Amino acid sequence: MQCQQCEENQFTKAGHDRVGRQLYCCSACGRRQTPRSASAFRGYRFPDDVIALAVRWYLRFRLPYADIVELLAERGVHVDPSSVFDWVQRFTPLYKDAARPHRHRVGTCWAVDETYIRLAGHWVYAYRAIDEHGQVIDVYLSETRDTAAATAFFEQAIARTDVRPQRVTTDKAAAYPPALRAVVPEAEHNTGKAEQQAIERDHQHLKRAHAEYAGVPATWVCAGRVQRARLRAQPAGRLLPSGRTNR
Asked: Could you read off the pLDDT of 149-196 as tens digits, one per residue?
């Protein structure tokens, strides 16, 4: 344990707090704290691992709050759905940051498509791409569905990932060939319904998530599938940011 004020690690016991947790006093500066003071979950009544598990279930399996409450109750933890909602709103950004380093390097075979969705009260086109691993490469929102929007999407995706695709699969929309010639003329361009099945299925995850993640910022929703993919293989304790581990 490290002091949150002077970063020393010498402590003496100093009684208990209101809920019975052991307090420690820093020998250097006199600050009192509990082992949970350095946790991202400080200030919450429920244990760290309960909160972490509830948020993980919500992000990974897209469960309703009521189902998460039921699963926790089966394990002897009784919590209100509104508490789970608060946890999700508070800790989703931390899970996103902690999961980012576990991404695969972006592949060179991209499947690109756009879908029409309603976000923040406005209808927009969401240009999206996935690679051969099934992970979302990038998202670009546009009010128009034209060559300029497609070009901007490819430029943004390449700038953010530092990867130039070798093969790009799209539908037969007229906007894509000129955009590809302008941005990645060396890439092989394939079209057809069969080739687009993967990205079309990915759109279904997006549209379902749009209904489930009401109140969550649009960029989180559009990239939600890759967030769940990162969480799939990671134990809950490992997904907390450095210095914010379970007690």
From this structure: 999 999 999 999 999 999 999 999 999 999 999 999 999 999 977 767
CB 125 within 8 A of CB 114: yes
The predicted model scores a pTM of: 0.57
Angstrom distance (rounded) from CA 124 to CA 141? 6
Give residue 38's Cα distance to chain centre: 23
Please list, residue by residue across 30-66, b when 16 or more beta carbons sit within 10 angstroms of its beta carbon and e when fewer do: ebebbebbbbbbeebeeebebbbbbbbbbbbebbebe
Question: Which phi and psi angles does 96 have, rounded to 5°?
Answer: -60, -45
